[in-house]
Write a structure and sequence with these properties.
alpha/beta, six-stranded mixed sheet, five-stranded mixed sheet, 13 strands, 46% helix, globular
Length: 334
């Protein structure tokens, strides 16, 4: 009897030790602050649901740029200092050319997953960033606007004439802002408040939402429409860590990434509308471009970006990838 009990206890301990050995905690960071709308959607649709499953896979969210500066998170992922990042690709685009593409596409993420572009993105991120390309947020909710302290001049040539203006930017926006005559200034989102307050910048290009989170509506007076660009934040897992996960763990992450792409949209639309209310209450005025000016604005935004992309060297077949991500005559703003 005692022998059977001992064998049973030994078997139970062995099973428990195997289960413990397979348990994995992934360390995650975001390039945007914890209270940013996109980070909140990430936590609500990806991190928290995975942790609530009480499985052998958990995610420890370490924080945003206060933990690792946004420009360093791509390198941190590559070296395995962190396991998961959600980050605008433009923030690490100096590391490889394909990272300059996300945001400039005008094809839906759902189509990109089916049309052959996804494996090409996986290859580029694996070879250059030691990353598994897990997801891509947030389609149909991440759209961009340009904001100003003073009313910008309109132009039938480039949409806006920004000569003499200093605009907060990233590599995603630099080509079109410079084509419109602006001097671009790259700065962390956390530094923009002081930049606006002190006149270091006269405005910024920024995705819909979270303006009120940072308090920028205290200085901004105008938002130019239509919107432009799209989802720019790949969800990445360190490739070595990914390969070390078992199949069930990989499947859990992959399924939850799809949920993030889908359910994150509703969260961001709600938060975007809430942010719009803050802007309206602060007196921020929407300028809706029309006619030839509107066309010139959108044409400049997309053509300047893709013309810059055309000049770079790539890991994958760039012309094929471009044809899958960007359709001439396709959607370029709403």
């Amino acid at each position: 009897m005692l022998g059977k009990l001992a064998i049973g206890l030994l078997a139970s301990a062995t099973l428990s030790s195997h289960a413990f050995a397979d348990a994995v905690t992934l360390k995650a960071t975001t390039c945007l602050a914890r209270n940013h709308d996109y980070t909140q959607a990430f936590l609500q649709t990806f991190v928290n649901p995975i942790n609530e499953k009480k499985s052998d896979l958990t995610i420890q969210y370490l924080g945003g740029p206060e933990v690792t500066p946004f420009r360093e998170q791509g390198g941190a992922l590559k070296r395995g200092l962190v396991d998961v990042i959600l980050c605008p690709a433009a923030y690490y685009s100096g590391m490889f050319s394909e990272a300059r593409i996300p945001g400039a596409q005008n094809v839906s993420i759902a189509d990109i997953r089916k049309n052959g572009a996804w494996p090409m993105m996986e290859e580029a991120w694996a070879k250059n960033l030691n990353a598994h390309f897990l997801g891509w947020g947030y389609d149909n909710a991440q759209i961009f606007y340009t904001y100003f302290i003073t009313k910008p001049k309109e132009s039938t040539k480039t949409g806006l004439d920004l000569n003499g203006m200093k605009i907060r930017s990233t590599p995603l926006y630099n080509p079109f802002l410079q084509a419109m005559g602006a001097t671009t200034v790259v700065m962390a989102p956390g530094d923009v408040y002081a930049g606006l307050q002190r006149g270091v910048v006269d405005g910024l290009a920024w995705p819909w939402g979270s303006v009120g989170v940072y308090g920028w509506q205290r200085f901004l007076k105008y938002r130019v429409k239509p919107d432009y660009f799209g989802a720019s934040q790949p969800l990445l897992v360190n490739l070595d860590k990914w390969k070390g996960l078992n199949k069930a763990q990989q499947e859990l992450l992959s399924k939850q990434a799809l949920i993030l792409e889908k359910d994150g949209v509703a969260i961001l639309i709600k938060k975007g509308n809430e942010d719009d209310a803050k802007l309206k209450a602060a007196g921020v005025e929407d300028i809706e471009l029309t006619g030839a000016v509107r066309k010139a604005y959108l044409d400049t935004i997309y053509s300047a970006k893709w013309e810059q992309n055309d000049k770079l060297k790539y890991t994958v077949d760039y012309q094929k990838l471009k044809s899958l991500l960007y359709k001439t005559g396709g959607k370029t703003g709403s």
